[in-house]
Amino acid sequence: MSDDYKVIGSVKSRALRVLWLLEEMGLPYEHVPAAPRSDEVTRFSPAGKIPVLIAEGVPITDSVAIMTYLADKHGQFTHPAGSIERARQDSLTHAINDEFDAVLWTAARHSFVLPEEKRTPEVKESLKWEFERSQEGFAHHMAEDGPFLMGETMTIPDILLAHCMGWAVSAKFPVSDPRIRAHAAMMRDRPAFQRALEA
């Protein structure tokens, strides 16, 4: 494997998004399946959060920042900065982060991340309601004329949304909107996703 890129983080985390994008791009990488707060992680990310991408010897953290960097650098799965299409793409990315990722992460924090005495498990029912309600609003932003969120062109929000919906199923959150369900199924059938799972 090439040492051009090194991805640090378990495939059962947001690192899967980065691995998936690298597989879609056909780029070589090294994968270190480290757990949060492990020595392999904290030497690059003092907070212990994963994933971490090492590019040109520099650690980059946050899965969406990593995906954006890779897409911009290689000119794939993104629209050009400063274009209306990129503004729409970024609005989808931020909406997915705000309405789905953040809700799932809050549920995870109150399930196993926070110290037990700081958890409020009852909040998860409210989070499930919010997660389901957000799907209907988000589905109105999905393109009608293509298989991907923006139409015929696959962009990084497609990976982000599909990852969140897989996470939701694992966390027993409702994925009730039929368009979002169909999108997630289509995305997870992609060969690059299957390769990323095995990384």
From TrEMBL:
Gene3D superfamilies: 1.20.1050.10, Glutaredoxin
One of the Pfam families matching this protein, by short name: GST_N_2
InterPro entries given in the database record: Glutathione-S-Trfase_C-like, Glutathione-S-Trfase_C_sf, Glutathione_S-Trfase, Glutathione_S-Trfase_N, Thioredoxin-like_sf
Segments forming domain GST N-terminal: 2-78
Transmembrane segments: none
CDD domains cross-referenced by the UniProt entry: GST_N_GTT1_like (cd03046)
Recorded superkingdom: Bacteria
Every GST C-terminal domain range: 82-199
UniProt name for this protein: Glutathione S-transferase family protein
Top-level taxonomy: Bacteria, Pseudomonadati, Pseudomonadota, Alphaproteobacteria, Rhodobacterales
